[in-house]
Amino acid sequence: MAKKPPGRAYILGVGLTKFVKPRGKIDYTELGFEAGIKALLDAQINYDLIDQGIACYCYGDSTCGQRVFYQFGMTKISIYNVNNNCSTGSTGLHMARQAVGYGAADCVMVVGFEKMFSGSLRSFFEDRELPTGKTVEMMVETRG
After folding, report:
1. Fewer CB atoms inside 10 Å of the end CB: C or N, the chain?
2. Sequence-ordered list of residues with C-beta below 8 angstroms from that of 136, at least 6 positions apart, any chain
3. Measured between alpha carbons, how far is 38 from 40 in angstroms, rounded to an integer?
4. Does the structure show a pLDDT above 90 at 21?
5. Where are the beta strands (DSSP E) in 27-136?
6. Are 117 and 24 in contact (CB under 8 A)?
7. pTM for the whole thing?
8. Which among 43, 21, 39 has a CA at the least distance from the CA of 114?
9. How large is the C-alpha radius of gyration of the chain?
């Protein structure tokens, strides 16, 4: 059976926040809310038109997306939390495009936010295998 091509999907609005150093002066809730409000204003739409929400972040608890989206209103929409490291934002946009393109939603809001720690990136789960373990192993074997 032939794969059905997706319908058209458009980005209606964009909102950005100022990049700030992690000094504890602003929380992720404020960053996500500011970006979302700016995107809604740019798109000239109301939050009531949003069918699904996609929250993109890496450093935070599993439901940070719900916390950000509830500030816009608790409208019973599905909210998805995306963590895909350097591809988190593009993964969120891809998910929104799929939802709109295949008819699961008419309007999806994607919000990205991040509140990182000072200093170098680090792992938080020392009691389990690193997810990059196989990749590093292959790189050592093939590249030296």
Report:
1. N
2. 130
3. 6
4. no
5. 52-56, 78-82, 108-112
6. no
7. 0.85
8. 21
9. 18
